[in-house]
Amino acid sequence: MSWRVVVVSSNAKVDYKLDYLVVRTLDEVKRVHLSEVGVLMLESTAISITSYLLCELLRRKIKVIFCDQERNPCGELVPAWGSHDSSARIRQQIQWPPGICQQVWTEIVREKLRRQRDHLLRRGLPQAEMLTGYLNQLQWNDRTNREGHAAKVYFGALFGPDFTRTEDCPINAALNYGYSLILSAINREISAAGYLNQLGIAHENTYNPFNLGCDFMEPLRPLVDSAVWKMQPEKLERAEKMALVNLLNHPVQYDGKRQYLLYALRLYCGSLFRALQSGNVAEIRWIGYGQ
Asked: What pTM was estimated for this model as a whole?
C-alpha cells in the first residue's frame, strides 16, 4: 500500500533506478521505493526529472504535483487512461441517471454541513446552531443553496465577521493550498478508477478539468479548515505548507477501521462510485476525522 508523501523542495535531479525513486542533490542522494510512494510533490522549479521516472509514476498511479515559482501547486500529472476498462467506465459514467447524481450530491452536501457544524461545536462557537438549522432545511439537490448560506456563517465564525474567501491573506492562501492537496489526491483515485474527472455530478464548470474531484472532496474541506484554524498563519511558507501536506498522512476512521487519509480517500471514492452505479446512497462510506 502506497502511503508516503514525498516532497522535493530544493535544486535536485529526480530519476528512477531499480524500482526506487532517487533524489540527487549536491549534498546527498536519497532513495524511496516506489511501492511506498502515494504522492510526489515537486516544490521547486529548479528540479529536473527524467521521462522514464514520469512513465513509471504514471504506470503505478502515483500522483505527481508540480509547483510554481512561489511553491504553490500549479498542476498535476494525469495519465491518458487509469484503468484497463476505462472506456466501459466512461460509458457508464455518461449514463448515470440525473436523479441518482442529485441524490448523491444531496448526501455529499449533508455530510459537508454536518462536518462544518461539528467543527464549530468542537470550537465552542454558538454559530453551530445556525448550521444545524441549515442542515435540517436541506432539500433535494440543495436547491435552496443551504451550502452557500452555511459557508458564510461558518467562515465568519472561524476567522471573524469581516473574513471573506476572496480576500488575499495568509489564511485564504493556506486554505487554498490545503484544498488543492486533497483535490489532487482525489483526482488520482478518480483517474485510477477509469472515470473522467471533467464530468461532475454537480460541478459543471466548462473550464474546470476536475469537476468530479471537486464534488467528491466537499466533505473533506473541514479537515483543512481545522488545521488552518489551529495554525492561524501570518504567512504561508515551508513550515506551514509541510503541516498541510502532512494532512495526507493524518489518521482517520473509515468503515470502523483506522486508516491514513491518503488510503481512506481511495476507499471513499470507491464507495461513491458504487453508489452512483447502483443508485443506492447507502453504499457511501464517509471518512471520519476530528481535530
From this structure: 0.91
